[in-house]
Amino acid sequence: MKTFHRIASVLAAAALAVSLTAVPALAEEGGPASPAPESTAAPAPDSSGSAYLIAQTATDTAGGEISAIERDDRFNLVLRVADYGAYKNYITADQISARVNSSVFTFTGNAEVGQLYEETDPNGAPYYSYVLLFRDVIYNGGGNTLSINLSYLNSTLEMQQLTVTLGQCVDEDPSTPNLMIRESGYGSQAIVAGTPFDLSLTVYATAGEESLNDVVVSLALPDGITMTSGSLTNYIGAMSPKSTRNVVFNLTPSAGFTGGVANITVSLVGTGADTNAAVSGMSTTISVPVSQPDRFELGQLEVPDTIYAGDSVSVTLNFVNKGKTSIDNLEATISGTNLGADLTQQYLGNMGPGTENSVDFDLMPLDPGPMEGVITLTYEDANGLNKTVTKEFSATVQEVPVYDDMIIDDSMMEAPEQKSGLPVWGWILIAAGVLVVILIVVRVVLKKKKAAALARLEDSDDEDL
Fold first, then answer.
1. 437 CB neighbour count, 10 Å cutoff
2. Total domain count for the chain?
3. Which residues in 24-54 are b (16+ Cβ under 10 Å) and which e?
4. CA dihedral of 44, 46, 47, 53, whole degrees rounded to 10
5. How far apart are CA 84 and CA 50, in angstroms?
6. CATH of the domain at 357
7. What is the DSSP letter of 94?
8. Average pLDDT for residues 76-88, to the nearest whole number?
9. Quick check: is 415 in a domain?
10. What confidence score (pLDDT) does residue 20 get?
């Protein structure tokens, strides 16, 4: 947030019949905020998220209130806002963006936003009040009403429009006929790249002694903005003094438009109905903020299935930048319960469009039971706005298992003593072999004895014969 100077003026709201005792002293960034001023006006009733003007004033650079504003004068516009939606949705001051949407007044950029004060209306409904400061606004003439586009960054709240009427404006037409853009608008919704929108213009023919013929409105578009349909030139025709005509151009910012703001130049020409003299109206530049869709997306979060108390584990979060612009200063932090993380913050740097990456955190939960955490990624988008995305995770930490090992006696582990020599079964085999040999020898001997006996018997028989 920019540094504010102290504004020591009284906010006058003649159009709203509201008076304040003082403008709140706007705090230096990081410094103490001044007490919230008391207002004699009751805020508008709670209307489900709407914002309302409490008070308004125009001041000079020194903070003094201005009673008259003439063409080409420069002044500071100070608005006090009651915002119920900001309170309900926990909006912070750096999320509030306010732009002037008018060709009657020239102001580029965003308003400076003061300290948010929590207040309560007579019905007991809480709301935030804050000051919007538009420095160095130029009055172009052609009216005294302007619209303020109030949007909320990194929020689902829709953009709102506040209408301001400045009674201090002295709107005197020149004596010669002329043309100017009295009002302009591009709807109440933020313009997103790749989405068509209607640029509406109110053409005003100033007072004079003659009408105008052949009035033409033409646009000069910056790179990245094209006509959705129709032509860049709109023929209006004849216009009488002090008359207005409305024209609409349908435009589309390209899907790759990354300029942030589209500066569209409007030119007006015509001719005098009586004198046939050429009339060139005031060339006007209309600034239309165009946002590139933020397509930074979180992917899968990887957590181990089994986690034991005291063990070191890692969680991994994947993410991808699907947008067409880079994101800068990406940081990751982790917080939660029973995490046991030594490193809780990591700076990841810049990330180009169409790229993916991941971040790892080492954890060591010590207590069995639930482990819960959240990984938060913060970064700056292409417009320099801070954004935040989060991913939650949880797991159950288990106790380390205990195994009951059987106690074994050392004697049971000793190997049996090996006996020297041939084992028993060897001796048995040898004995069996010897026995077989003996049986064979005995059988052979018996057979021989039997044969010898038979031979003697035969010999004896022969002798007897």
1. 10
2. 3
3. bbbbeeeeeebeebebebebbebeeeebbbb
4. 30
5. 6
6. 2.60.40.10
7. G
8. 91
9. no
10. 34
Domain that holds residue 146: 1-172
Task: Give the per-residue pLDDT at 420.
Answer: 57
CA distance 109 to 347: 30
Q: Are 43 and 21 in contact (CB under 8 A)?
A: no
Q: How far is CA 195 from CA 143, 190, 191, 202, 225, in A?
A: 31, 10, 7, 23, 11
Please classify residue 446 by burial: count the beta carbons closer than 10 Å to its beta carbon, then call 0-12 exposed, 13-18 middle and 19+ buried: exposed
Mean pLDDT confidence for 316-322:
94
Q: Is the pLDDT of residue 234 over 90?
A: yes
The answer to whether 112 touches 2, Cβ cutoff 8 Å, is yes
Predicted confidence (pLDDT) at residue 14 exceeds the cutoff of 50: no
Residues 302 and 384 in one domain: yes
Q: Does residue 416 lie within any of the structural domains? A: no
On whether both 162 and 179 belong to a single domain, the answer is no
> Cβ atoms within 10 A of the Cβ of 422, count?
10
Please give the structure tokens belonging to residue 139.
Answer: 């009055």
User: Distance (Å, rounded) from C-alpha 428 to C-alpha 436?
Assistant: 12
| Of 292, 317, 343, the domain-final residue | 292
The answer on 119 and 39 residing in a single domain is yes
Among 282, 197, 268, 196, which Cα is nearest to 239's? 268
Q: Are 199 and 186 in contact (CB under 8 A)?
A: yes
Residue 173 has pLDDT above 90, yes or no: no
Query: pLDDT by residue (tens digit) across 382-411?
Result: 666 778 999 999 999 999 887 765 555 555
Contact (CB, 8 A) for 52 and 44: yes
Q: Are 202 and 133 part of one and the same domain?
A: no
DSSP of 15-47: TTTEEBS-PPPPPPTTSPPPPPPPBSSPPPPP-
3-state DSSP assignment of residue 453? helix
Please say whether the dihedral angle defined by the alpha carbons of residues 149, 150, 151 and 156, taken in this order, is positive or negative: negative
In the chain, the amino acid numbered 309 is A
* Residues whose CB falls within 8 Å of the CB of residue 435, separated by 6 or more in sequence, listed in order: none
> Do residues 381 and 391 share a domain?
yes
Task: Tell whether 112 and 20 lie within a shared domain.
Answer: yes
Q: Out of 292, 313, 329, pick the residue that ends a domain.
A: 292
Can you list the positions of beta strands (E) in 92-158?
96-101, 105-106, 112-113, 117-120, 126-139, 145-152
Statement to judge: residues 25 and 97 lie in one domain: yes
3-state secondary structure of 180: strand
Which two three-digit tokens encode residue 392?
Answer: 């939650």
**Residues facing residue 446 across a β-bridge:** none
| 309 and 339 Cβ atoms separated by less than 8 Å | no
Q: Does residue 221 lie in a domain region? A: yes
Q: Does residue 166 sit within a domain?
A: yes
CATH code assigned at 212: 2.60.40.1510
Greatest CA separation for the chain:
193
